[in-house]
Amino acid sequence: MYDMTTTQDLRTQIAEPNLTRILLADTRLAPLWTVLRIWLGWQWLHAGWGKITNPAGVWVGEKAGVAIEGFLKGALGKTAGEHPDVSGWYASFIQNVALPNAELLSYMVAFGEVLIGVALILGIFTGIAAFFGGLMNANFLFAGTLSTNPIMLIAAFAVVLGWRVAGQYGLDRVVLPYLGVPGAPGTLFRHDARLPQTPIPPAA
User: Fold this and answer.
1) pTM of the entire structure?
2) 4: pLDDT confidence band, cut at 50, 70 and 90?
3) CB under 8 Å to 180, separation ≥6 — which residues?
């Protein structure tokens, strides 16, 4: 069969190199991606669950916002000097957005970390979960905190790139064909999927 879009696609798209196709789209490497994905998910789940179950309730509970307020004020203290750990634009974000909403942000961080961890461990919406995990790592780094954030950010970046196979041994294997991805709707949204298809005649 001849696909009328093939010629146009070749004119407007750059072919994917074999190396990146093997690393990022070959299901034979799915076990390696699964290990990385679950490790990253466990890091987030462990961190988030610790915040939710904190006995002092400084993340979730009566004193919600206390912990993150202390963290943010500590970040503001790193804005001095010729080479500050926290940039001026991020300090402005902390003062004008984060600190006034510290309690809400506290809940968002705690439950967000748990949700990211669960999604990565189960392998559902893997690329989206890794993206938001990396976004949180980036914010911690902008606030002048290293810890494991650089390693987790690199791992999240890798999982985002390898999302096509990172969830192969997870729920993505079932969910994505059903829901689809941008530009390729799944069976749920293809209302004509059950209709007989008219074959495209071969090129003359």
Assistant:
1) 0.85
2) very low
3) 186, 187, 188, 189, 190
